[in-house]
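To make the argument concrete, we let one protein speak, a sequence paired with a row of structure tokens, as a model reads it:
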Amino acid sequence: MMAAMTTVTNSEVLLRLRRLRRHLALGSNVLDQDSIEQIYAIGITKDSFEQGEDVSRPLIDGVTWRRRRVTWQTAGLSEENATSCGLCVNEVRVERDSAARVVPDVAMASPGLVDFDSIENAYWQTVWASGALRVARGRKESRLFVNMRNLTCSRSGAPRGPWEDLAFLQQRVAAGEWSEERLDLIPTMDPVLRRFEGSPLQVARYLPAYPPSWCVQAHPHVLAATNGGYFLNFPEEYEDDLSALHQPVGALYSRGQLHMPPWVERPCAMEWADGHRDFMMLGPRHLALRINDSEPVGLVTGVDDLQSAAQVWRRWDGEMPAPSAKDRVVDLVFSGTGLASVCLPGEALPPLGGAIVRLFEHLADPWLNWLQGPANAPFPTWELLLRTGRSAPLEWAFASGPLLVMDGRALTEEAIFHPLACGEFRPDGPAPTRFPYDATVTRAPRTALGLDANDAWVLVVVDGRADPAHSVGATLEELARLMLHLGCRKALNLDGGGSSTMSIEGVGQLDQLRPGLTTTVVNIPSDAGHRERIVPVALTVVDSRRD
């Protein structure tokens, strides 16, 4: 199948790149039509797919799983430097009028479903992520994982969470004074704690996670599942006391609950109760704070509006200015899982995965009364609200990115990394904003979510890394063109690499690509041993008739 594309010469490409970079350097957040046309044409001479082996199976009416092997003719500036690549593509298409719906399954909202081996999984995942696997063999690993699901706020302003009692253990172990006198406070962790006897101890926090296949195997109403958006994964990303392994990055809303506020602005996949489906950018400006049943107050990033009575500050926004002595000001410190502490300005830094909401005057008064008042002063009630600009209630939303296809046209590198397509991705920024600034070089396993012309959701997983002879992986530009080839008018890149997994209900060994894969897994995960990576959010296809 051939897609007609514009052919450009090398000199034209260089000219358009210079124009585009000049345009972006002006800091504009809006691309004019001429610039958009330039973006779409850059470097594209041809796109072709030669269809190979094809397996297709209906899961229920209106839901189809399909595996394709395609030969990919990459785009180049001339016929001589175009190359062919083999890809294995798994796709699940959920038609709008089917009995199925797409739902993000949130591990940290399912306490009865994730405790089977989450501590052990968290341990091995971080050993892998920190590059310490070789060192860990033959000696004790000094990292202890503590579930950060429940976090409360202390009057002193310091966070009070499940690791407080472990701080005592950490001090005793480090001093060579191992003691079991407080193990009864956390009896479920006894086997884990004992492995650290006599070793220096480092407390690391985690949120529950599980592999996508577990959603399919544990729930009879789940037809298929893939991995979802990004999460904190490497140790430096959760090094402060209010961040955690597996903490999702960006907005996460599901089943009536805002699990993760959009402290980081990123594009989101969204669906509303009236059936509307779309991708849109969500950030702090879409949040409102309600205090003690008052009218919600919209939040803004402080760098954008220092006059606002409710300012949001993130780690990458720079130093927070000191308020004047006459101002009544309080800082609410939000971790990834909720309100962690209330303090006066200057007493805390924004967490890596969260933010500080600075309140002034009448908004600060209820919190100051609790913080500085009598011992029986009431703790203010609060609620963070997500505003999407539509009257219909929101069903779900989760952040990822960058956008790959907009208005029926595949984006190229210059457009993929424009703020309108990627939000607050920064190639050299601090966690959780960083993202490799590369859309044309790195081939990797990829996961994407698209909407076709009939408003069907299209879930796609492309294999890579595990076996180049099986599938070489795709660059972001190639993934964009692939989603366009699959009929998507809009598409969003999801977490990839070792996270990329697709699980299908009822598949047999003949449908699996390698012996020894987890039952129901239809692609080849790229982590060691082709093991699935555990993730905090799985994107599931649910049969509503069985839900």
